[in-house]
Design a protein that fits this description.
This protein is mainly alpha-helical. It has a domain at 47-123: 434 Repressor (Amino-terminal Domain) (Orthogonal Bundle). It contains seven helices and two strands, in the order E-E-H-H-H-H-H-H-H. A two-stranded antiparallel ribbon has the order 1-2. A hairpin with a 5-residue loop joins strand 1 and strand 2 (25-30).
Length: 127
């Protein structure tokens, strides 16, 4: 069981499944390992890059703030769809600024709940 440590766990531990001395698979605590940290950091950097690209599209009027906030919350389209219970085609449609602007608060609150932000925050993107 790797115990190299992982800064992305912030000193915490996590359960992973491994084969014990008796040959049975069971949960064990791990401090993580360097490969896992590297992959996690790359994934976070990729999401940050996507968030910045979405922010730029939003500022140019080519995308809605929803797309930016999705990436900023470290989510992708399938995860956002799953947490809101909305169909993929519908969420993609909401990425269009003219459609997003007409969405009722009831739909916007579903997005807010999924991403842990307020309605005001969802409607805006910082310049």
């Amino acid at each position: 069981m790797p115990q190299e440590g992982n800064e992305t766990l912030a000193g915490g531990r996590k359960a992973v499944y491994a084969r014990g001395a008796d040959g049975r698979i069971r949960p064990m605590q791990s401090a993580g390992w360097q490969v896992e940290e590297l992959v996690t950091r790359q994934a976070i950097e990729d999401l940050e890059k996507q968030a910045e690209e979405a922010r730029q599209r939003c500022l140019k009027g080519l995308a809605s703030p929803l797309e930016y906030h999705m990436f900023h919350a470290r989510m992708d389209l399938p995860l956002l769809c799953q947490t809101t219970g909305l169909w993929r085609w519908r969420v993609r449609r909401h990425f269009r600024p003219e459609i997003f602007a007409k969405l009722p608060d009831k739909v916007l609150r579903r997005y807010c709940g999924a991403m842990g932000i307020t309605l005001d925050a969802l409607r805006e993107v910082a310049p």
